[in-house]
Amino acid sequence: MTRENVLPERDTISNLQLYERACGQNCCEHGVCHQNYQTNEPICTCSRGYTGQNCNTEFAADGKLEDIMMDTAMSMDSEPDLFSSQTISQATATSSWSRDERSQKEIFNWAMEVMSNGQYPTLKSQASIKFEELQYSTKMYYIRQARSAFEIVCENIAPSQGLELMTQVCHSMKLKTSESKQKDALTETIISAYNKAEDHTTKVQVLSLIVEKYSKSELLSFIQGLTIYKIDAARKYAATHGPGQYVTPPKITRIRLPKQKIHHFIEFISSPCYLQVVGFGSRHLKLSSGLVVKVPKVIRTMIASRLINAYTNYCKENSIIPPCRATQFKIIKACAASQLKSLHGLDNYISDGMDSIDTLKKVVSNLGTNGMITSKVDDLNESLDTLKLHLKNEFQNHLSSESDCNEHCIHLALSEKGCEHVHTTTCQPCSRMYQIKDELQNLMTSNFPDINSKEKEEFEHDISVSTEKIWAWRDHLIRTVNQDSCKKDLLQNLQSHEVLIIADWAMNYIPQTFRETQSEWFGKQGISWHMICALVRKPQSENDSNDEDDKNYDIYSMVHIVEEQKQGWHIVSQIFSSAFKMLKSIHPHLRDVYIRSDNAGCYHALPLLSYLWKFRNDLSLNVKQYNFSEAQSGKDLCDSRTGTCRLHMLNFINEGNDITNGMEMKQALESHGGIRNTYISVVTVASETQPVLYGQIKNLQISKFNNFSFEDEGMIAYKAYGIEGELVKATDMTRISNKLMIFDTNLTIGDPKQPEEKPASKKAIKQNSTFPCFEPDCLLVFKKEDQLITHISIGSWLCIEKEEKAVRFSPKVKEYLIVLFNVGEESGKKPSPYTVSKQMRNETDLQGDRIFSPSEWLSHQQIRSFFGNLCMKKQTVDKSKDKSVKLVKIEDNQEDDEDLQNVLSSLEANEHNTILSEIVSVLTV
Questions:
Q1: Staple 218 to which of 40, 214, 512, 848, CB 3.0 to 4.6 Å?
Q2: Any S-S bridges, and between which cysteines (predicted)?
Q3: How far apart are CA 198 and CA 773, in angstroms?
Q4: Which helix (H) or strand (E) holds 582?
């Protein structure tokens, strides 16, 4: 190997300069190449006496070795510093490649060779194991080598005084060893004191004496049970206070708050604007004295930090010194209250009714600021709060079909003919509800000089709309209780050969994958799936023969997964047919079936009822009745089973699987043995065509009726459960259902997989041998847990919605909304119904007068519905321009639009219910 020579300046070094070069392969392992600076002739010298004749570099010259070594020795004697620092550093800088290729032993031998002029015996090996484990002869060899090296090093450091320097070094090392032993003894004493210390502070204080003298690893090996945290704490203590310094702990004094301050703060956080009383339930407040106080359950409408900020600002404005924030947090924590949270999917009419009561309270508050007597304001607010709690918790529990109170009689409220029994009692909260409306309307006729005409119109409008919504809430509760009584009666009288099924479409399942990108996450199309829950009476066990009220049922679930198909009545009819067949295979003794569902368009439709009546005796089970509940009611059992299925599918996805279509959804629901008593089927649709009815039935508005019984004489339709039934003759039913077929060949339903038998859950340990119902309004208490589970599954409490009254918009309102809709379509920025609803109140003309009167103001629901109708009309116009659209003519040139008929029937039913409500209101006043 060769490289260029980098020559130093001539005036800074001697004439002879050494440069390292690697020897060739023929040279010994200790070979070093040198170069004469004056002649540029390379010379190779070796520690064992070989010359350039044995090297493979062609750099050596005969007769030069001795002269070079003599000159080198003279240079070392005359200028030792030059050789040791400058010369060697130059050589090191120019030949680092050579050093990197040599071992540590070779470097050591070379250095000792140079310092000793070849007198130091070559080190043959190095110790690779612990010195204590070496053999005696090997130890003595290394001691001799080290002694010789020390002597040479000392002689080079102090010429002619090397022996004396070596003696001083050995003496210094003995003193250091002795001092180290003394420190070890002190360390042992400190460690002993550390182990005897009991509290954490003392341990840290003692450890700070030695924590800076040892590393963490050494301290951990010295003291058993020591942690890194304690070492860091001791070092912080030593840096802050000094090693081992005693620090007097600060004296903590507690200031006792006066009772007046505590009471003032509690009164502030308990004000009605921050605290709402719940109509049911209670909590227990434990005092410091050990006394437990039972307090009503309340809801706090503001979080603790904001509540404290409000109190602090209040104290600043009134020059009050409040307690510290920590104390305020402790008081709030001690005052038991629930935190108000946002909710979703609430019943529309219950929510509107509660909002209406809040609106009336705001109107009363505004009237109070404009001159109304304070006592009158307090009385009205108290009456509104009482009314809210009454409708929310008590009213539906007092309703009965034959109540002595006219406000609580269901037959009086729902029947146009009234009831036959006499009403002898009245309900004070219900009577107060009618009085509030009259009082508020009379107040608006009073003279309030501070209220202008625009504000007065708003107040009158709010009073009118809010009272209507409260009345709607009341009527809604009456219909709820009446329709729920149908389910209760069916279950109480259910025979062993009968089955009750509850049907509902679950919310579309959004496809999911185990690892999902953003592009896959957006724009998904949900998968429709239908849930049917069947309740079958099972034989009573011998152990429960003495319990007369023990009603045991087997609950079966049938899930039908439908992809790319509209949720119409036709597919529902085929799902019912499949479910009947499945139940018959599970329990061959079943004969009759009762159906219950909500009043969605796919259920509450004349074609479906006609199909069930026509084939009531041809299906696997005989259809006896079809009973409808109102929206958001009667399907609690289906919702609970749907939640179980969703959790099962989520666990399937978390195991690394995907659910992107109906078959994968079925695979997920049947994984790990499936769900107990749940059967999964996939519905395949080859064509979307469905049969239609042959004409209509005159004077029959299907949306007005909620209960149907199928008889040989025809179909009996009831406006409400047990109230005013009308017979639809068999001839009419046969005529309109002439084109209906029992099975559709374009629709295939796959066979379900039999779920594995799983053991039922163990019974919980009985406490006081009673199991109360979890529902706050329910007062039932059960002896067994199974009875409670069955009671919850059946559901004795339900919440229903009410249909709203159809309102015709004025041409001015329609024109205003159409302009906003068209502008939104053109610009792409569609108006929000909430914004438009508020904007209508403030629209004025050039003279500053209102454009719309209060009677023309619309709610956001009405505006959303109107925009939806405009959007549907726009889509219909676009489709009519497409030549591929085929127009179907109905016989006798009559339109047979099912959706249109349902809408018209719904509007007529709304008007009918409104008239009925007005009659009831007049009778009950």
A1: 214
A2: 23-33, 27-44, 46-55
A3: 54
A4: helix 569-586
